[in-house]
Design brief:
- It is a single chain.
- The protein has 161 residues and is of the alpha/beta class.
- It has one domain (6-160).
- It has seven helices and seven strands; from the N terminus they run βααβαβααβαβαββ.
- A five-stranded parallel sheet has the order 3-2-5-1-6, sandwiched between helices. Strands 4-7 form a two-stranded parallel ribbon.
- Helix 6 packs across helix 7.
- The model has no long low-confidence stretch (mean pLDDT 92).
């Protein structure tokens, strides 16, 4: 078994990742918390758009710590055979309902690899709420310490597709 690592997983709505002062305040508070041993990095499921940094990216720069994206690139999704399934998730534009599909497991497993490979100190991991419980459970099953936080406007109903 690999060494035990420390993670704080923050489940949120992707809408907040780019410009939410509230999410920034939560992340800043976590980064300064006396309950978190040495903060090593921010890791994030983030759809990067040209010129659009996330709240966590900007905060990592200010704190002079690493930030990295844990999500799979389009080519990684294609190579894993999940690109189409991930691109056509059912109910993508339904309010307060999100669907968990089998290929989410493949994505989260890829995230685990990136998290463990890049781990340094305590890592704050920001992901969509859909992945929050599953990612936390996968990290704990591998023997890692995980603290959890949620920042949402409304808790969505998660259904299996």
């Amino acid at each position: 078994m690999e060494n035990s690592l420390n993670f704080v997983v923050v489940g949120t709505d992707h809408r907040f990742q780019e410009n939410s002062p509230e999410l920034e305040a939560i992340l800043r508070s976590l980064a300064r918390s006396r309950f978190i041993p040495t903060l090593g990095a921010f890791a994030e499921e983030y759809l990067e758009r040209l010129g659009a940094e996330s709240v966590a990216q900007r905060l990592a720069k200010q704190l002079q710590i690493p930030w990295f994206n844990i999500d799979m690139t389009a080519s990684e999704r294609s190579e894993a055979g999940i690109y189409q399934a991930q691109s056509s998730r059912p109910g993508m534009f339904q309010a307060n309902i999100t669907y968990r599909i089998p290929s989410d497991e493949v994505r989260e497993d890829a995230w685990l690899g990136k998290l463990v490979t890049n781990a340094s100190g305590t890592m704050i991991v920001i992901c969509g709420y859909l992945h929050f419980d599953s990612l936390t459970n996968k990290l704990r099953a591998r023997g890692h310490m995980v603290d959890q936080r949620v920042f949402l406007e409304t808790v969505p109903e998660i259904r299996k597709a």
